[in-house]
Amino acid sequence: MTAPLTPPHQPPPHDQHKTPPPPPMPDPAGDPITATEVLQGVLVTVVSAIAGAVLGVLWLNLAPRVLLISDGKGVFLRNSEGEAAIGSDGTFVLLALAFGAVAALVVFLLRRKGGVPLVLGLAVGGVLGSLLAWGLGTYFGPTSDVVAHAKAVGPGVAFEAPLELNLGAAAMLAWPLAAMIVHLALTAVFGPRDPEPELWDQPKPYTQGPGRS
Fold first, then answer.
1. Cα–Cα dist 41/52, whole Å
2. Which of 15, 39, 82, 143 has a Cα at 20 to 30 A from 29?
3. Quick check: 114 pLDDT over 70?
4. Handedness of CA 35, 36, 42, 45 (dihedral sign)
């Protein structure tokens, strides 16, 4: 009886159950930013900044007015206990929050994949839009020269104070913060998911063929 050519406890040289090499792992740093994504981010910035003009018009028409009155020697608040000044800031902040949320929703619906350029575009565009809204509201609102305005209307006649933002930088950040938070939430809940990695084929145990001993 001749001895088998293949040792009894070793697989043949060309085992059909050989484990395949593992698939390539994705880059942990993520996909590189493309020129198209950068252009989309710039477009979001420009459109958001232009939308600031609409915010400025709405703020100018919806913000409560602070009334002043002059006695010929000085200018005073007509109602010293009024909350119109706070209402002006609150109106701007609420409008800015709404604009930021709508901007994030529109960007997400147009491009669900998201990306760093889009988020930066929402943030920068929100700041620029808020600045434009503040500038338009104060420019087209009542004059900032209160003394000249008081002299023009005469003593004892109430007139509107300039439209101002007492919150300053905090009001400027309402739009971009709302845009980034809403966009992040939409992406986390409804955004596309990364494909699950496939399990490697488990190596099968070697079975000695017939006629081997």
1. 17
2. 39
3. yes
4. negative
Q: Which of 109, 115, 106, 99 is nearest to 49 (CA)?
A: 99
Burial 75-92 (b: 16+ CB within 10 A, else e): eeeeeeeeebbeebbebb
Three-state DSSP class for residue 151: helix
What residue ranges in the chain does DSSP mark as E strands? 67-70, 75-77, 159-160
Instruction: Write down the pLDDT at residue 26.
Output: 46
Q: Which whole number is the average pLDDT over 15-31?
A: 50
* CA-CA-CA-CA torsion sign (32, 34, 38, 41): negative
Burial class (CB in 10 A: 0-12, 13-18, 19+), 193: exposed
pTM attached to this predicted model: 0.71
Specify which residues 76 forms β-bridges with: 69
Domain boundaries, the chain: 38-65+83-144+156-188
| Higher pLDDT among residues 91 and 164, named by residue | 91
Residue whose C-alpha is closest to residue 137's, from 89, 103, 77, 99: 89
DSSP state at residue 68: E
- CA torsion angle 124 127 130 136 (round to 10): -80
DSSP for residue 204: P
Q: What is the mean pLDDT of the chain?
A: 79
Closest CA to 137 of 51, 53, 55, 56: 56
Winning range, highest mean pLDDT, from 72-76, 88-92, 131-135, 163-167 = 131-135
